[in-house]
Design brief:
transmembrane, about 0% strand, mainly alpha, copper, about 55% helix
Length: about 150
């Protein structure tokens, strides 16, 4: 056991070197810049494809905008049956939370570009759907959205 036998057990548990070369084993735990990121799915957007990285950024941007839209939309009619309105609210809430988690998981890739487009998507979505710039409701209406606000 003078040949580093204590390391032999660890080497047997790790994948063969050929598998390590085929699969990128780097996981960033701090912010980094560049297109070499895996976002949400294994191998997506792909390390060598700038176009796919830009597409991934666009998807994250629009997911964040959709979260803001769902947070501030008014789809329910005043005369909707309570059970149907409750089911629609629950469905909208589940979709909003699911999309918000997808944006959060994307940001957990620690890619600086992903972080910036997620924040930009939320900001643009809030500007169009939540701010006073395009808000057509009167102050005495009392209802801002069909869903409760996301209190983070």
């Amino acid at each position: 056991m003078n040949d580093g036998g204590h390391m032999h057990g660890m080497a047997a548990a790790s994948p063969p070197m050929s598998m390590m070369h085929r699969r990128r084993m780097i996981m960033h735990m701090t912010f980094f810049w560049g297109k070499d990121a895996e976002i949400l799915f294994d191998g997506w957007p792909g390390a060598d494809h700038l176009g796919m990285y830009v597409l991934a950024l666009a998807v994250i941007f629009f997911l964040a905008v959709a979260v803001e839209w769902l947070s501030h939309c008014k789809l329910l009619k005043e005369k909707s049956p309570p059970a149907a309105a409750g089911m629609l609210q629950t469905l909208m809430y589940a979709v909003r939370v699911g999309l918000a988690y997808l944006v959060m998981l994307s940001v957990m890739s620690f890619n600086g570009g992903v972080f910036l487009v997620a924040v930009a998507g939320h900001a643009v979505g809030f500007f169009f759907f939540g701010s006073r710039a395009f808000n057509k409701q009167t102050e005495d209406s009392g209802k801002g959205s069909d869903l409760p606000p996301m209190n983070c």
